[in-house]
Each structure stands twice: as C-alpha cells, then as structure tokens.
Amino acid sequence: MNRRRRLLPAAVVTVLGVGLFLAGGLGLAPHEGGGQSASDSRAVDGGGAGVGLSADIRGLQQHLKAAPGDTLAMASLGLAYVQQAKITADPSYYPKAEAVLTESLTAEPAENFTAMAGMAALHAARHDFTAALDWSQKAIAVNPDSSTLYGTLADAYTQLGRYPESFEAVQRMVDLKPGTPSLARASYAWELRGDSAAATENMKRALDDANTPADQAFTRYHLSQLALDSGDPRTALTHAEAGLRAAPGTASLLEAKAKAEAALGDSASAVADLQRAVTLVPQPEYVLELGELLQSLGHAAEAEQQYQVFRGEQKLFTDNGVALDTDAALFEADHGDAKAALTIAEQGLKTRPFLEMHDAYAWALHVNGRDQEALAQSDEALSLGTRNALFHYHRARILQGLRRLADARTELETALAINPAFHPLHAPDARATLAELEGAGGAG
C-alpha cells in the first residue's frame, strides 16, 4: 500500500494530504444564531479552494479510468466528494461519496484506513456521529499513528457529547503532529471550556503554521469568530479582511466580515458582503443569517425570500441523507412552526447530544411553553462553561418564563457582556427585555 501511494498522481496526494482534515470537519466553534453542526460548516469555501478541489476531483476521476481498481484513489475521491459537498453546499455529492467509498472498502476491507476515514467524514457530514465514531475507531485500529485520524475521532466524540474522550483525542493529535489541523482543534477544545484566551492563542499558533492560502483563510476565519464572540468586532473585521487578502472571494470570510460590519453598525456593507457570500456558496447558515439581518433592518419581504430559500435547502439536505440539526430547529422556533422545532430538536439530540443541540432543544421547549424542561437542557448546554451569548440569552428567556426575573436579568447581562451584537434580532430584544426587567426591579 505504501508503494502504491508513492506512485499516485499529484491529485491523489493532494486529497490525501488535506482531505481528511477538510472532510472531517473544519467546523469548530459553535456560532451564535445556530447553524450546522461543528463538523460541517466551517471549511474554507468559495474562491480558489473550490476551484482547486474541482481540479483534484477531475484528476482522481481520470486516474481511476486508467486504474479502475485503485482502492486508495477511490477512497481519496470519496473524501473529495464529501468536501465538495461542503464548500458548494450541494449535498448531492454525498451519495456519490458513499458509492465510491463503499466500492473502495469492498475491494479492500481490512487495511483501507483512508476509506474508513472517508466514511467517518461522510457520516459526520450527514450528522450520524455514532457511525462516524465507529469508522474513526476502525481507521485508527489500522493506522494508530495518524494525527489526522485522531481529528476525525475527536470530532465524533465532541458531537456525541463525550467531551473528556474528545479532549484526549485532540491531545493525541497534537502530540503526533502539532500543526494547523491539530492546533485548530485544540483551540476549539479550549473554547468549549470557556477559555477564550487559550482558544485564541492556539488558533494563532495554527495560523503561524498555515502554509497555504486555504489554511490561512481558515485560521483567519476562526480568529475573526473568536474575536466577535468575545465582543471585539474591530479585531474580528481585521482578521476577516486579512483572510480575504490571502484567499480572495472566500465565502466564509465574507460571512465573517459581514457579521463584524453589522456589529460595528455598518449594515449596508454587512448586507452586501452576506449577499456575496450567499451568491458564492448558498450555505443554509449564510442564507439564514442574511434573512435575519434583513429582518432586523425592517426588510420583511426580502427576509422572507431568504427564509423560503432556507426551507428549500433544508429539504435538499434531507433528501440526500442529512439529518436536520440546530439550524432547522432554531429557525422553526424563531420564524416558523414551534411544534416542528421541537420534533427536529428531539430527533437531533438522539444523534448529536452536543451542547449546541441541547441549547436548540431548550429553545424549542421554551417556545412550546415547557420552560422547566427547557431549563434542564440549558444546564446541559452550559455545562462546560462555554462563553456563548446566545445560550445565555435563551436561558434568560426561559428563566423569565419561569418568573425567575432576577436570574433572567443576570443572564441577559451575561449575554450582552460576552457579545453585545450576538444576534441581529435577539441582541436588541435582550437589551429591551433587560431594560424592562430593570424598570420593574427584576424581582422574582
């Protein structure tokens, strides 16, 4: 197998080098306002990354025409398809990935750790994290010294709410190969535990190790998000702009730039940049953010258009085997059907008992008038000490529903202290509700 890998064409080597990292889920930080799972939405998208991956896919396809039995090339193509689905927001690539990965494993079932890792990435992308964990463990059993494989393992453990095991896997990944992929996951591990300073330091180390525009764009995106989530939109904007200089036209960086601009009061630029991001890559996350930004500016009809697009995208994802997740649950809770929100969140928690999912379930329970149950789910969402303004806002409204008004006021103060611009609709509501509670004395 080693000899065959040395003889592979450049396209295969490229995907092997970055494919597991990219396909396994660069999505790390839980983002305010909900969205895809942490294993989904944070890969570098748009611009040169998409063009380069398309070229890799063509190279792999051509190689397989000449060597149709090359199981390693099949596995690499499967990984590339998973990543292409993410950077194009086109889930029709997932069935293609499943087919070629299955073919690779059928031909070589025992030692084929690349295809096993590809299956882990595919199942994570579809939000089946139990299967992702199983395939990650199988791959590591074959190749226990691969830092990259411990990344897929850590991602699966994280999304299943098995945090101590996830942190151990991240440490093993760093020990084997300290670099951009492992340091980025270390950053997220600290962020989950509420240590924003350590998270930022590790992401800066990941940036220092970033040798390609795509890696630079990725780390700049996360540094921008970390700054924004800590209430520093000016630094967030600086990182987003630096990332765009390294990788012009990257949709995720345009999204980051737009959120920083909105927080700084530049609504026109924020709308323009989000529209560009959606045009480049119609990620459901971006579409929903654009709709909510437009709604916050009083453009109800335009916002509704984006919400209709979001609904259509959710159907496209489910039709291609992707389980609905926090984006869909929070969207229905905030803009649609409260009962549907509860159903989605309940199902999501079965496959992804991660803190984001607990928060979404808490919010769905709240909008259905079940605040006592909602509070228990909010406890789970904040159990690691994660500094997430949206989580605290949701908890505040739940406590308000329980008539624990002093506690609600404290939670609103916490949310706004973490990030005064955490959401275009909920942050203004948090300020208005806090003023109301303060006016009433906040007793209760």
Essential attributes:
single chain; 444 residues
How would you describe the overall organization of this protein?
- This protein has helices at residues 2-6, 10-23, 47-66, 71-88, 93-107, 113-125, 129-142, 147-159, 163-176, 180-192, 196-209, 213-229, 233-246, 251-263, 267-280, 284-296, 300-319, 326-335, 338-351, 355-367, 371-381, 389-401, 405-418, 426-439.
- Helix 5 packs antiparallel against helix 6 (113-125).
- 75% of the residues lie in helices and 0% in strands.
- It contains 24 helices and no strands.
- With 444 residues, it is an all-alpha fold.
Succession of helices and strands: HHHHHHHHHHHHHHHHHHHHHHHH
Q: Report the biggest beta sheet as strand number plus sense, adding barrel if it closes.
A: none
Shape descriptor = globular
Strand content: under 5%
Distance between the termini: 68 Å
